[in-house]
Design goal:
Layout (H helix, E strand, L loop, with lengths): L4 E3 H15 L11 E7 L10 E5 L8 E4 L2 E4 L4 E2 L2 E2 L2 E7 L7 H14 L22 H6 L2 H11 L3 H7 L2 H7 L2 E3 L9 E5 L1
Helix pairs in contact: 2-5
Length: 193
């Protein structure tokens, strides 16, 4: 055991910032306004998600929305003096048990969900299936060249070495492993109308 400590949320924040810096496709993203957290999978086997982006604004970045005669708003979340527009959750252990390239694919996928206007809304890919558009494969093809370029850039680096580890190996290598956790924020009713 190495005796070191790792905060996986901070590691993922560093990774996302490195991807953004190296990838012009994501130059609109300000990581000061993105919070990275962890969530836990109840089951290790079978289907499920590896990560998700939670936008903290409604469609087109509006801060309030009327639904059934009630007005709603997301809670305002501040971190280091910045208002958070997005929370990215990585699921433990599922995400960390992926191979390194697939971990990066998931990270790129989640970053691509962030609206190009960086307004707190997600990127909308179509009228009916706005999240991924008509196919998840088409969605992932939007960044496949950038993903491959980034993967080749970080090969043989300490960053890649950590990405190569699964969750059990991370827990074995580091004496203390911790994460940032937060319940998914939900819109709250602010007034009736």
């Amino acid at each position: 055991m190495a005796g070191d400590t790792i905060n996986l949320s901070d590691f993922m924040t560093f990774l996302l910032q490195d991807i953004i810096t190296a990838t012009p496709l994501f130059s609109h993203i300000d990581m000061n306004r993105v919070l990275v957290c962890s969530a836990y999978n109840k089951k290790v086997t079978g289907g499920g998600i590896f990560a998700k982006v939670v936008p903290l604004r409604f469609e087109n970045g509006v801060t309030v929305k009327k639904f059934r005669n009630h007005w709603y708003a997301f809670p305002k979340i501040m971190n280091n003096g910045f208002e958070i527009l997005y929370i990215v959750y990585f699921y433990i252990p599922r995400y960390f048990d992926l191979p390194a390239y697939e971990k990066l694919n998931v990270a790129f996928h989640e970053l691509y969900h962030i609206n190009p206007e960086f307004n707190g809304d997600v990127r909308r890919m179509g009228a009916y299936k706005f999240s991924h558009g008509y196919s998840k494969e088409h969605f992932n093809n939007q960044f496949k060249d950038e993903l491959l370029h980034y993967y080749n850039k970080i090969k043989n680096t300490p960053l890649h070495a950590i990405l190569e580890m699964n969750f059990a190996q991370i827990a074995e290598h580091f004496e203390t492993v911790y994460t940032r956790n937060m319940k998914v924020p939900r819109p709250k009713k602010i007034k009736d109308n």
